[in-house]
Design brief:
single chain; OB fold (Dihydrolipoamide Acetyltransferase, E2P); 6 domains; globular; five-stranded mixed beta barrel; alpha+beta; 9 helices; about 725 residues
Length: about 725
């Protein structure tokens, strides 16, 4: 039986090597449909075979061979479907009962339902006509591609620690609709991106072992990055943000130009720069620039956030258009889109264009200013000492300054368009007045200073931002402003917006709002941080509760009573018992949580809620984790109990805190030989919390007898140690 299974498996391996040989003449939709139909048939056949034979060994040689053949074909199709149509994977996946009966050596070719934990990497890939967002889960040196059946309800940034459920197919994890939910898979949010002040950038120039060209000089790269691009960011941020740093290279790396292995490019580029003396820990952004290769379909790709962030530039001519765009991703921005609703400005049947915003470097081919929605996200307007963005809640005439100029005048208007009745998240109209100055000089061709540019932006996700066409009767997007003397009415909110006048200094805008009814909605509640640091039992930890009043502007300010839900015996108190919040506004309170002394190690749930005191049917909840760790658990094991002096001992030390593996912890190994001599070594734990120590015995120098290895570690203020002994003959 074992020989038969082995032959089947080798055959499977040979077939799997020919993955992805599809019909090049079929359209993507046709291929998806064909794959889905084929998967359903293959899954049904395998399930039937297993169902007919409750015990695997009753299948016989022919049955084993048939499952092997079906498994190989199904795996090929399933891999394609996992990337192209993740929603379908959830519907055609075999049941756990069937999967449990698959022969052990064929399990690798079948899907598995798994819950994984790691660090999220979000990459925006920028191709000539469209872009796409890639999600990867990083576990040490491994990377698993994530595919979502639906766009996540929350915005996810690189560096977010997540625990996520899905169906694993090879090196991909498909997250179906049943696994999604607001905040359902976040363990800890990514560190907040600092968008102000000096940003240190390391530009590393590399070329390939088969293409060692240097299409531009290091001096040119220096000028483009730290003069042209830095000045662009300084102007966009109204003097609040700029770039400094260094250019390294050129370096030839052992990567072929016929492949597009961005992970290898990054790794070898960093290593080459460090070998040349670069201290990369001093930089917050890494940019890898290399000669243009058709193997990479993109002109640039950049991480959405990240610490440090990363950007890959595939070009023979480094310029602001690409570099400024990719750094925008690194600062946390997605692409700037447009929405075409046919003969209407909004409503009805609409289509979107990934790069449709002609007035934003994140959409346009020209390096023009970020739109005001983007600047609000970056904090460059409506934040502290930044220029204001005025939220309009009442009828009146409003002045808007020229968008590009430094000053304390209002840089835009923000008018509520709609509120999601379930989540409470709001969509806004954003208005700005562009003039042909500075980086926007290009716009002199399009008479933008004669009116106002309109966008809609959703506060829950930076991906939902759209330039609106205020002149839908024309085909061009460059005349999409609402010009002086013209009005736009949104009947769904009984609001009319009229541009009264506009020139190079600014514009007057009239907003007419009809009396608004009061529409009740649940408040949005969030608790930060989502997870405490490691705490000793009896400690008090302070969280911040933030409540957003999502009721319409026709409602009166609401009083929201704040409550907690903690384990029995714990204490939890707020800095204030209630929050008085106007519609559309938010307020925060401190939440102090204390665990009893002696509480066992573990992660405990802290629940928080806010209830509208005038209508208790409307409330919101959130939660965070309180983690108790009294010490690090250090488990040490050797690969054998007895060795000869011609062998090598391998000692594994697994570090855990509160039952969870600790990655990146330094471990010191001290081996005491039978004669008292000591040998030491150090290692760092991987994503599974395991550090490895190896020692090759020397027959002439090492004695026989009992040896002991002690592993010691400390992390985040905690320490621990463990030992293992073995015999050397």
């Amino acid at each position: 039986m074992k020989k038969t299974i082995l032959r089947v498996s080798l055959g499977v391996l040979a077939i799997v090597a020919s993955l992805f040989l599809g019909n090049p003449h079929s359209s993507a939709n046709q291929i998806n449909q064909q794959n889905n139909e084929r998967l359903a048939k293959l899954s049904g056949r395998i399930a039937a075979l297993i169902g007919d034979h409750p015990k695997t060994n009753s299948l016989g040689k022919l049955g084993q061979a048939e499952i092997g053949r079906l498994a190989a074909e199904r795996y090929r199709v399933l891999r394609q479907t996992a990337e192209a149509d993740p929603a379908e994977v959830e519907s055609i996946a075999l049941s756990d009962e069937v999967l449990a009966k698959i022969p052990a050596d064929l399990q690798q070719f079948f899907e598995k339902r798994e819950e994984l934990e790691g660090e999220l990497e979000v990459i925006e890939e920028c191709e000539a006509t469209h872009g796409k967002t890639l999600y990867n889960l990083k576990q040490g040196d491994k990377s698993i591609s994530l595919h979502f059946a639906e766009k996540p309800k929350q915005e996810l940034l690189s560096g977010t620690k997540i625990r996520i459920k899905g169906i694993r197919v090879g090196d991909t994890l498909d997250v179906g609709t049943s696994d999604l939910g607001s905040n359902s898979f976040t363990v800890a949010s990514a560190p907040l991106i600092n968008t102000f002040g000096e940003h240190k950038v390391a530009v590393i120039l590399v070329n390939f072992q088969d293409r060692q060209t240097q299409p531009f000089t290091t001096a040119q790269a220096q000028d483009v990055t730290f003069n042209t691009t830095s000045n662009f960011y300084r102007e966009n941020s109204y003097g609040q943000t700029w770039l400094t740093g260094d250019v390294y290279g050129w370096y030839t790396i052992p990567v072929s130009s016929t492949s597009c292995d961005t992970a290898a490019i990054a790794s070898y580029a960093q290593q080459a720069a460090m070998n040349a003396g670069a201290n990369l820990s001093a930089y917050t952004h890494y940019v890898y620039a290399f000669p243009q290769t058709n193997a990479c379909a993109f002109s640039g790709r950049g991480s959405i956030g990240g610490s440090p962030s990363e950007a890959w530039i595939n070009t023979d001519s480094l310029g602001l258009e690409v570099l400024g765009h990719e750094l925008g991703h690194n600062f946390g921005l997605f692409h700037a889109r447009s929405m075409d609703c046919g003969s209407a400005v909004v409503g009805g049947s609409c289509t979107t264009d990934e790069y449709g915003d002609k007035f934003d470097i994140m959409g346009a081919t020209q390096p023009v200013h970020f739109n005001v929605y983007q600047k609000e996200r970056l904090g460059w307007v409506n934040n502290g000492s930044s220029p204001p963005l005025q939220t309009v809640t009442a009828s009146g005439n409003y002045w808007v300054d020229a968008y590009e100029t430094v000053g304390s005048g209002t840089k835009g208007l923000k008018i509520l368009k709609s509120t999601d009745p379930t989540t409470g998240m709001r969509t806004w109209y954003y208005l700005e007045h562009r003039t042909p100055s500075g980086a926007d000089s290009f716009l002199s061709y399009y008479n933008l200073q004669n009116g106002m540019v309109f966008h809609t932006g959703f506060e829950g996700s930076g991906q939902d931002i759209y330039l609106l066409d205020m002149t839908p009767a024309t085909a061009s997007w460059y005349d999409s402003i609402l010009v002086s003397g013209q009005s736009f009415t949104d009947p769904s909110i009984n609001t009319t917006i009229t541009v009264l006048s506009a020139d190079s200094t600014g514009a007057w805008v009239q907003v007419s709002m009809a009396s608004q009814p009061c529409t009740h909605a649940n408040p949005s509640v969030s608790v930060t941080p989502g997870q405490s640091q490691w705490l000793l039992s009896g400690s008090t930890f302070t969280y911040t509760l933030t409540v957003v009043n999502n009721e319409s502007t026709g409602c009166s300010p609401g009083i929201f009573n704040v409550q907690t839900n903690v384990p029995a015996g714990w204490t939890a108190n707020y800095s204030v018992p209630s929050l008085n919040i106007a519609p559309g506004g938010s307020s925060s309170a401190s939440l102090y949580v204390t665990s009893p002394v002696g509480t066992p190690d573990g992660s405990y749930n802290v629940g928080a809620s806010a209830v509208n005191s005038s209508n208790t049917a409307y409330s919101g909840t959130s939660s965070a984790a309180y983690t108790i760790v009294s010490g690090l658990n250090v488990a040490v094991s050797s690969s054998a109990a007895t060795y000869t002096r011609s062998q090598t001992v391998t000692v594994n030390s697994t570090i855990r805190a509160g039952g969870n593996p600790i990655a990146g912890a330094g471990v010191t190994f001290t081996m005491t030989k039978s004669n008292g001599a000591v040998t030491t070594g150090t290692a760092t734990t991987n994503a599974s919390g395991v550090a490895v120590f190896k020692y090759a015995f020397n027959r002439k120098k090492d004695p026989t007898g009992t040896y002991q290895v002690r592993a010691q570690t400390s992390s985040n203020g905690l320490s621990g140690s463990g030992t293992v002994s073995f015999l050397v003959k």
